[in-house]
Amino acid sequence: xxxxxxxxxxxxxxxxxxxxxxxxxxxxxxxxxxxxxxxxxxxxxxxxxxxxxxxxxxxxxxxxxxxxxxxxxxxxxxxxxxxxxxxxxxxx
Length: 92
Known about the structure:
By secondary structure, this protein is mainly alpha-helical. It contains 6 helices and no strands.
């Protein structure tokens, strides 16, 4: 989805970038920049997708980093680190 489509769908739900920014503790310009692909923030992208009730892959199909790669949360990251350590220790 392009920035205008994201903005339009937010408006249909009664929201705008400023409201989302306040809820996330971020600046409205960051929300706008993420929507227009001028900046990257996984947390903002996830929030936009959630508010739009769409999969992140649908909202940001061109930004694979948002839905592939590193685990999302600190808890998931710790689990993956433990898996990696166990894997590497088994190879010795």
